[in-house]
Design brief:
Layout: H1 2-35, H2 45-68, H3 81-104, H4 111-144, E1 150-155, H5 159-170, E2 176-182, E3 192-193, E4 196-200, H6 205-212, E5 216-219, H7 226-237, E6 242-245, H8 250-253, E7 263-264, H9 280-287, E8 291-295, H10 300-310, E9 316-321, H11 324-338, E10 344-348, H12 354-364, E11 368-371, H13 378-383, H14 385-406, E12 410-414, H15 425-438, E13 446-451, E14 454-456, H16 462-471, E15 476-478, E16 484-485, E17 487-489, H17 490-503, E18 508-512, E19 518-519, H18 520-530, E20 541-543, E21 562-565, E22 571-575, H19 581-596, H20 601-611, H21 618-630, H22 636-646, H23 654-658
Parallel strand pairs: 1-2, 1-5, 2-4, 5-6, 8-9, 8-11, 9-10, 11-12, 12-13, 13-18, 14-17, 15-20
Antiparallel strand pairs: 3-4, 6-7, 16-19, 18-22, 21-22
Helix pairs in contact: 1-2, 1-4, 2-3, 3-4, 9-17, 10-11, 10-17, 12-14, 14-15, 15-20, 16-18, 19-20
């Protein structure tokens, strides 16, 4: 194959040289015909003899100039404006040298012949190098006229939009036609870009979709603020078109603006979340040259933590997980990126296995531990409370004791908003885990927990379930149309966990600002629209009733807690009453006895309610919530619908979100 490429390269030069020679000769003959009224017999013989010598000189001079100017190295299929300008300069330079040399040698031709030759050679020598680009664009245009082709609207007439529009018009791989462009700049309205009219700003989107029969919308403004981006995308989602987006400004920086970089719009693109701003210096000091261990490192949050940690050059990164497939996937991903620059280890083990956990900690002696391993599925743990106790409670206790024994400096546990006034067994076990950390105030290891709400796209979360149901043709099932939840993306959650860990002090519980609440019903409707379907028409949305232990409205902090601001506006610290190690040990003994004696589920739930005072029945909490919301002066549901459509326009209301009451 390498030999074939070299042969192709060597054949390419003589073929182009021959074509250039034919163009130069042809332009000379045509110049004489134009000059002498298209009568070749009227051309004086001595002019033809002189031109023949001039033609040979010009071919030689042009070849030399073109070699120096690398005119034989252009990729004809993808020439651009700058290439054409460079070609024009090369042709002018070669022509000027030819005229000077011929004058020096006393070879005289009519000035009009020289001028006509120059014009024709500019068109011929430059045009032949643009010919494939023209043919490609013509084929793309003819292909776009097929009835099956997409009719594309491009949002953004800036740098990225121009690159994408050019590729849409010229690419042979694109089955679609650029029909119109949207841009908020009023000075661009009415103008054309690659043959497509700029019809106006975002207020023209829905009208233009109908007018031009648009089937696909591509959003190409990578520098736009997240709030504005969400506003425009929320307009686009109502059109029923396939919606795609250029991910971000880094595409421009890296020169990756192309249709290959365009992805389908995800539900998180509609949230309008401001980008998380990390303090890289504090996180670097926290992680650089440290041995870091991540339990549950193959899971959704755990694997993203590993990705983020690897960026800060740890001395070693240990991934601990019970599920070997997930651990293998993140191992291979990090190896591909960092190779030998990252000391990466993977240990397959269960946090329930005390002996094995102690062995791993004794072997690696980690400096920092992120504890993300847990059973987190609410209905399953409601049905299997004993397993939740074994894994979440005793598993966490084993990891905590192993960390203390091996001299871990800082221990960060991933908690959940379901630990706040828990109404389900999983949330109660996570609250108990927080209590374990609170009891270690005298430990040499600094323990802290980080609470956040639902993570978009994580394993077992609602978004992947909705997507599967949509792909299957529906129905999309929601437990209750009134349910609201706080959402955060996986990278956001992981980055905030790292910064919270960097600033953490002994036994603190951190709360992440999750932004505005989202109705699960609205989330389901948006996902259906993003799939190019119409809710209730193409896909039914079915209400199936609350699951065991499920709240209508999630909270982030208990009413008795006190909040303290941190240097990061999205991270808060809450203080709770101290818990003694003896209290925790007595509770652990009670749980161990209940597990050992195979106590039935109702007894385990009753015991956990005694050990976690804030654990309440979901029915009572939801009834209070319904009464509380119906008694308010405004309609909470209507307010939420307004917030769902407009939340990207406003600042995240931290105080409202933190003090949400049930």
């Amino acid at each position: 194959m390498h030999m074939n490429k070299n042969m192709s390269r060597w054949w390419r030069f003589p073929m182009i040289f021959l074509a250039d020679s034919l163009v130069i000769a042809a332009t000379g003959i045509l110049a004489f015909l134009v000059r002498f009224d298209f009568s070749f017999s009227a051309v004086p013989r001595h002019y033809l003899d002189t031109w023949l010598v001039c033609c040979l000189i010009q071919i030689a001079v042009t070849c030399g100039v073109f070699l120096i100017r690398r005119m034989y190295h252009y990729i004809w299929r993808s020439v651009n404006v700058w290439d054409v300008l460079s070609m024009v300069f090369s042709v002018l330079a070669a022509f000027a040298l030819t005229v000077l040399l011929c004058s020096f040698l006393g070879l005289r031709l009519p000035k009009s012949v020289w001028f006509i030759m120059l014009i024709l050679q500019l068109f011929g020598l430059v045009g032949e190098r643009c010919s494939l680009r023209f043919l490609t664009a013509l084929r793309a245009y003819l292909r776009s006229l097929r009835p099956s082709s997409d009719r594309i609207m491009l949002i953004g007439a800036g740098s990225a939009g121009r690159v994408l529009s050019r590729e849409i018009v010229s690419s042979q791989q694109i089955e679609g036609r650029l029909c119109c462009v949207i841009d908020d700049d009023p000075q661009k309205a009415g103008k054309h870009m690659d043959g497509a009219r700029i019809v106006g700003g975002r207020d023209c989107i829905q009208k233009a979709v109908k007018q031009y029969g648009i089937t696909q919308i591509i959003f190409a403004i990578p520098t736009i603020a997240q709030e504005e981006k969400a506003e425009i995308l929320n307009i686009c989602k109502m059109t029923g078109c396939r919606l795609r987006v250029l991910p971000g400004i880094y595409q421009l920086v890296n020169g990756e603006v192309s249709l290959a970089a365009v992805k389908d719009v995800q539900i998180e693109d509609l949230l309008g979340r401001k980008p998380v701003q990390l303090d890289p210096q504090s996180v670097s000091q926290f992680l650089a040259n440290k041995v870091v261990l991540v339990t549950g490192g193959g899971g959704s949050i755990g694997s993203e933590l590993c990705r983020q940690i690897a960026k800060y050059a740890p001395k070693a990164l240990i991934i601990l997980d019970i599920y070997e497939n997930n651990a293998y996937d993140i191992q291979q991903e990090l190896k591909q990126i960092y190779g030998q620059n990252l000391d990466l280890r993977v240990e397959i083990a269960s946090i329930r296995d005390k002996t094995r956990i102690y062995q791993i900690f004794d072997e690696y002696r980690p400096d920092v531990v992120f504890h993300a391993a847990a059973h987190k599925h609410v209905p399953l743990m409601e049905n299997c409370p004993a397993e939740a106790i074994k894994n979440n409670v005793f598993g966490t206790y084993h990891v905590v004791r192993a960390a203390e024994r091996s001299g871990v400096k800082k221990f960060v546990m991933i908690s959940t908003d379901k630990a706040v006034n828990p109404t389900n067994f999983m949330g109660a076990t996570k609250r108990f885990c927080e209590m374990i950390l609170q009891s270690r105030r005298e430990s040499a290891t600094e323990f802290c927990a980080v609470r956040f709400g639902n993570v978009l796209g994580s394993n077992g979360s609602v978004v992947p379930l909705f997507k599967k149901q949509i792909q299957a043709g529906g129905p999309v099932t929601i437990t209750d149309k009134r349910i609201i939840r706080y959402f955060m993306t996986i990278p956001e959650a992981a980055m905030l966990v790292l910064e919270a860990g960097a600033m953490a002090r002994q036994s603190q519980i951190f709360v992440l600002d999750m932004g505005e609440p989202v109705k699960i019903l609205t989330l389901a409707e948006n996902l259906i629209r993003l799939s190019g379907l119409v809710p209730y028409k193409d896909i039914e949305i079915k209400e199936i009733g609350l699951r065991p232990g499920e709240k209508l409205y999630e909270e982030l902090l208990m009413k008795s807690e006190h909040l303290t601001k941190t240097s990061n506006e999205k991270i808060f610290v809450e203080e709770q009453r101290p818990i003694t190690p003896d209290e925790i040990m007595d509770a652990l003994v009670s749980l161990d006895q209940a597990i050992t004696s195979d106590s039935p589920k109702d007894q385990l739930i009753a015991l956990m309610k005694r050990l976690v005072p804030t654990y309440r029945d979901p029915e009572a909490v939801n009834s209070e919530a319904i009464l509380s919301h119906s008694a308010k002066e405004y309609d909470f549901d209507d307010d939420l619908e307004t917030a769902d459509s407009d939340f990207d326009k406003s600042e995240n209301s931290t105080s409202n979100q933190i003090y949400a009451r049930v």
